[in-house]
Amino acid sequence: MFHTRRVLCGYPFALREVVFGLIVIFCLTPWASPPVALALGLLLAQTLGNPFSAQTKKVTAKLLQYSVIGLGFGMNAHAAVQAGREGLLFTVASIAGTLVLGYLVGRWLGLGRRVVHLISCGTAICGGSAIAAVGPVLRAKDEEMSVALGTVFVLNAVALFAFPPIGHALAMTQNQFGLWCAIAIHDTSSVVGAAAAYGDQALQVATTVKLARALWIIPVAIGTALVFKQKGVKIKIPYFILGFVVAMLINTFVPAARPLGPLMVSLAKIGLTLTLFLIGAGLSMQVVKSVGPRPYLLGTVLWLVISMASLYVILHTV
């Protein structure tokens, strides 16, 4: 029924395409939120499926990048520098610890070296962006990339729903929760989504620290090329972070541009909500099952360790 194509006014369509379009429209309204959008995407993926899977894969990454740049118009450079300083030590320690732990647990599980490194980098730095950057350096196969991305995206979905209730239960401050999100949640989309659900200050801290963390893609990719003895590879630099910094500097030092800030931030949040719907719509049960239990076990162990360790340190030091 939902897959059968019909013709209206000379245009062929299927009902599942109509459902997809209606959800997209809903994500553009004030009633939608990042967790709701992700849940709708997951529901669509498990039932009707994503009718535009090929197109949404291309759109999702760009939409996320533009949304992050838009969030920069709501940031203050002075506050961002302070947040970055607070998160620097946590960032260095957690990245190094995650990569070492991932290597040890991966060997114990008997997983391939490239899959282990991809999942570890995704957990340590910034989820899918890190995997997309490190994968070509490793010359990873398509199935290895898919396994790593599937593992990270499933755990991202869990984190987006789980973190805000935990933060409220522990009475975490906005600053503490934003810092915890930036360190313990893989992908920038879920970091921003969870922090936005907690509060504006948490969103500012989380976005700043996470993007500063994402810059570690570059040294980690270079280290990967050296450790795996790969020559003649190109390292993918996350240039959208530069766009975020420029937007933040404009908002801080160009008074005439400040009235545009609230509009740009509102558009960015809408873009983020839509991004999470598209991510959820790509996580079909087939994708989840194709990963297999061992990569999920590795990803879960790394995620739990970094989440609990960073939570303990943040609650006792920040």
N to C succession of SSEs = EEHHHHHHHHHHHHHHH
Distance between the termini: 55 Å
Strand order within the widest beta sheet: 1-2
By secondary-structure content and strand pairing, the structural class works out as mainly alpha
Radius of gyration equals 20 Å
Model description:
It is a single chain. This protein is an all-alpha fold. The protein is built from 15 helices and 2 strands. The protein has one domain. The chain has a two-stranded antiparallel ribbon with strand order 1-2. It is globular and about 55 Å long.
Which properties best describe this structure?
mainly alpha, globular
Tell me the layout of helices and strands.
Blueprint: E1 5-8, E2 11-14, H1 15-27, H2 34-46, H3 53-71, H4 77-109, H5 113-124, H6 128-138, H7 142-169, H8 174-184, H9 188-198, H10 200-214, H11 217-227, H12 240-253, H13 261-281, H14 285-291, H15 293-317
Antiparallel strand pairs: 1-2
Helix pairs in contact: 2-13, 3-12, 3-13, 4-5, 4-10, 4-15, 5-6, 5-7, 5-15, 6-7, 6-11, 7-9, 7-14, 7-15, 8-9, 8-10, 8-15, 9-10, 9-13
Tell me briefly what this model is:
The chain is mostly helical. The chain has helices at residues 15-27, 34-46, 53-71, 77-109, 113-124, 128-138, 142-169, 174-184, 188-198, 200-214, 217-227, 240-253, 261-281, 285-291, 293-317; strands spanning 5-8, 11-14. Helix content is 77%, strand content 3%.
